[in-house]
Amino acid sequence: MTAAAAIVGLKIEVLQEAKNLGCAAFRSNGNVHIAALLKYLGTHPELVKDGKSQSLPADLREEKLLKMRAERKSAELEYMKNIGDVVSMSKVSPLIMALAKMVRSKLRQIPDRCSQKYSLMTDSLAIKDDLRTEIDAALRSMDTFNIEDFKKEVMQGMA
Q1: How far is 154 from 50, CA to CA, in rounded Å?
Q2: CB distance 118 to 134 below 8 Å
Q3: Residue 66 and residue 35: Cα distance in Å, rounded?
Q4: Which residue, 42, 137, 130, is CA-closest to 10?
Q5: 32 - beta bridge partners?
Q6: DSSP string computed for 33-55
Q7: 17, 47 contact by CB (below 8 A)
Q8: Contact 154, 95 (CB under 8 A)
Q9: Model confidence pLDDT, tens digit, residues 100-137
Q10: CA 17, 20, 22, 24 torsion-angle sign
Q11: How far apart are CA 108 and CA 102, in angstroms?
Q12: Where are the alpha helices (DSSP H) in the chain?
């Protein structure tokens, strides 16, 4: 009955009075049929007149629920930060920028290595295949990339 009082926003005493007056919304198993209760209260407005609940208004309850959810999410994020699953963007950003510069540098070296060879070639398919091979080689050269060494290198460069 307490849950039903909260749902309809009335004092539990109002629901008890409706039950005592024979409202059919109250089941023998303790459940309350809300639609039947509201219909009954609609035909007996004297019960509701001063029976408004002293509990929190619905929007304030919703606000408290949202606050609790936000606090839980914040605690989860803090925990993930503490165990190292989440890292601050300010720590990751320099690493990403340095990695992007390294990739760009590897790719920009291709024309210097290949321009003379391509000036002698006339077959566009051969040039295309060779370019693809050169790009793959440049990318493969980063296969041995070690993030820990890279981090140390970047952090030393920032100091």
Answers
A1: 70
A2: no
A3: 27
A4: 42
A5: 26
A6: -HHHHHHHHHH-HHHHTT-B--S
A7: yes
A8: yes
A9: 888 899 899 999 989 999 999 999 999 999 999 999 99
A10: positive
A11: 10
A12: 2-8, 12-20, 34-43, 45-48, 58-83, 89-119, 124-140, 147-158
Q: What is the pLDDT of residues 56-84, one digit of tens each?
A: 455 677 777 788 888 888 888 888 888 87
Output the pTM of the full model.
0.42
Residue 97 in tokens: 């920028």
Backbone φ/ψ region at 84: left (φ over 0), alpha (ψ -120 to 50), beta: left
Question: Which long-range contacts (C-beta less than 8 Å, at least 24 apart) are formed by 38-41?
Answer: 38/8, 41/8, 41/10, 41/14
| Backbone region of residue 48 per phi and psi (left: phi > 0; alpha: psi in -120 to 50; beta: other values) | alpha
- What are 104's two structure tokens? 């760009």
Give the CA distances from residue 136 to residues 49, 129, 130, in Å, rounded to whole numbers and listed in that order: 80, 11, 10
- Rg (the chain; Cα; Å): 35
